[in-house]
Amino acid sequence: MSNWKRFARNRLAVAGLVVFILLVLSALLAPQLAPHDPNLQDWKIRLQPPSAEHPFGTDEFGRDLLSRTLYGGQVSLVAGVVPVLLGATVGTLIGLVAGYMGGRWDQILMRLLDVLLAFPMIFLALAIVGTLGPGLLNAMLAVAVVSVPGYARVVRGQVLTLREREFVAAAQAAGASHTRVLLRHLLPNILSPLLVQATLSVGSAILTTASLSFLGLGTQPPTSDWGEMLASGRQYLPEAWWLAVFPGLFVMLAVLSVNLVGDGLRDYFDPKSKNDR
Length: 277
What we know:
mainly alpha
């Protein structure tokens, strides 16, 4: 059975993948799909409910909410992927070094990560953004920093097991350098759990970045993302419910779809699940 057929047996994971692809396409094709300029203000039609002309209604400035939601997806999805790439890269390097070198290196690196883990994720992100200043780049950097310990611990645990295997001893006996052992022999063997961890982290990154924008520390006007749109719409509840419902729905769909894909990948790479197939 092909890899895709094995993965496709998990219908929820496939459904999540389809939804996430549609969200990505809607963001990439926002210039073509958006019916109006997302920043065009028309005070004559402010706070209008959903209609044929404006399917998601209009906001407090008379801007088309559907257009803003589509363009906001560009920011929100990028803010979910970029911190994961940064956090996974740094966390993987730390985990590889700590697990392979052991001893003092392991103690120093893990204790530093324990300091980060001592703080709740959102509070640590707030502290970092508060220090660096509000803005999308600083928000993504904060989310990347708080995600590093998770990747480092996953990688370290895998390396501690693999470094005692015969193929590592053979590479060392053949004179391979530490860098070669880490990158050529250990890293390829930990990609499966790392991929699952990264996939599941995308949803968390989207949610955390949206939370920072909701608090005014992420995306700054006139640029908007789903979190900033939620913050703007909350003051008009319940008379203008659409201002918060539609951006919130897109956040929910993005996080749920990524988590379903991550669960599907975790089941796919599970040795017990493979034996059942």
